[in-house]
Design brief:
The protein starts with a helix and ends with a helix. It is mainly α. The chain has helices spanning 2-21, 24-35, 46-56, 61-95, 98-102, 107-128, 139-144, 149-177, 183-228. The chain is elongated. The chain contains 9 helices and no strands. It has one domain. Helix 2 runs parallel beside helix 4, helix 4 (61-95) packs across helix 8 and helix 6 (107-128) packs parallel to helix 8.
């Protein structure tokens, strides 16, 4: 258990530091980090910021949500641009390699995948912002697929806004019921519930995608049979 204890102590140390130094600029910076390729939990930023906004009144909950959303969008754009500039050439180089062909991957399939994501990626981008461990990664396929940047920004911002509003609501609720010295443990506890909710959303999305895939195959099969007759 040493790793778990170390992680707990590091998170607790940062939480205490953030509570003592919270400001809009730090909310923006840490949410930008959280949304980029550096793993960092938004749960230790937005809920305590919202809590302090209610308790101390030196920040506004609504502005906390907006600043956190702006930071999340900035971080997501970092991933998007890096994936577009670096990731795409690597993916295409792999698709054109002998090993790629051995894995049944070729340039045509990659182009089809890009077109599909460009067409349906808006929904994926929005939902992905609500799911733990996916939030930071969803910008990468969007960048590789060269998804329209304005659509990407719109749905990333909307998804981040919903997530940050949920976290801020948690912070606001905790401000009514929990003392400051109990805040970290309370956030950890409710973050577990949010993680479970996110995993349920992910499971439902996977089921929906599989259902649609089978539905499409069945339609194509029936159309082929009709045409054959």
């Amino acid at each position: 258990m040493p790793c778990a204890i170390t992680d707990y102590l590091n998170a607790a140390w940062f939480f205490d530091w953030f509570v003592n130094n919270a400001s809009y600029i730090f909310v923006f910076i840490f949410m930008m980090i959280e949304s980029s390729f550096i793993p960092f939990p938004s749960e230790v930023v937005v809920p305590p910021a919202a809590y302090l906004a209610v308790q101390r009144g030196d920040m506004n909950v609504f502005i906390v949500v907006l600043v956190a959303t702006a930071g999340a969008l900035a971080g997501a754009l970092v991933n998007y641009v890096l994936a577009m500039l670096i990731g795409r050439p690597i993916v295409y180089a792999f698709a054109n390699s002998r090993f790629g062909h051995a894995c049944l991957i070729n340039e045509e399939k990659v182009r089809k995948a890009e077109k599909y994501f460009d067409k349906h990626g808006a929904t994926s981008t929005f939902i992905g912002r609500l799911i733990p461990a996916v939030r930071q990664l969803i910008s990468i396929p969007a960048g590789i697929a060269k998804m329209n940047i304005w659509i990407f920004c719109l749905f990333t911002a909307l998804g981040a806004l919903v997530w940050n509003a949920i976290l801020a609501l948690l912070g606001w609720w905790l401000a009514q019921h929990v003392m400051l010295d109990q805040l970290y443990d309370a956030v950890e506890k409710y973050n577990g519930y949010l993680t479970i909710a996110g995993l349920i959303i992910l499971s439902l999305c996977v089921v929906y995608i599989i259902y649609n895939a089978f539905k499409t195959k069945k339609k194509n099969h029936n159309a082929f049979k009709t045409k054959k007759k």
